[in-house]
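Hi,

Apologies if this is the wrong queue. I'm a grad student, and the batch job for HMG box domain-containing protein from Lodderomyces beijingensis produced an output file that my downstream script rejects. I'm not sure whether the problem is my script or the file. Here is the sequence I used:
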Amino acid sequence: MNPISSVLAGIRGQTVTRTVLQQRFVAVCTSYAINRTPFRTYAAGSSGAQLKSLIAKVKKAKDKSKQLQKELKEAETKIKAAVKERTKKAAEKKQEMKEAEARRKLVAKATVNPRAYSPLVVFCKSKKLSIKDAVPIFAQISEEERSKWTQATADLNSKIRPMVTPRPKSDGTTSFSRFVKKNIADTMENVRDGGVEGRDVANTAFRQLGEKWRAMDENEKSRYAVSKEERARAQQKKKDWQELRVKEYHELQKFLKEYKVNIEDY
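Support response: The file is valid. Your script probably expects a header line. Output copied below for reference.
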């Protein structure tokens, strides 16, 4: 209770003079001040201890926050490095796949035997004309000039053929392929004797060999078994041939690009 409330409580219901009221007010204020002093001292001491504790907690929280921020920064750095490394590997993998696909297409082109040129195509290349533009012109040239272009074409084709190495012979890298290789000639001859002609000969022969292979038991199939060593040698032989054909392909393309036909020489 504050001093004013104490004075009012003491005189409630009584008639007092101004002097008595002043005296009572001074007495009550003095007593209140004396009695409140220990409380204020305790309160001040208690607040100081709490403040120190609070400051310590804040400092501890700040230190922990700094540590967490440091750990977060380190984690972010590791994540960025991991993402960068993964992106790099993905790019390298993509490039490897791109190069492998380009290589596959190159090998496919290089291992196909070059087609023989026709007089019309040689005429187009020499005159730098499209087939569409060259056809009516070529149709109107004389027989003598046409004969020259035919001879020039034969000479070009004769130069191209020796520039590529034929596919190496193989007995097959699987049991079935070896079986087919050893029996295809006789089977095709029997098919022709049966009245089959054209492309149907090969199709019929392969179908018959497939049916015969499926009907054979394991003991019969084992006669055509291919050992791991034979398969490895055949695969290496094929790989070496492909490498050679790629080299020859580049040389052939350069030769064709630089080749000039002087029709007057014929």
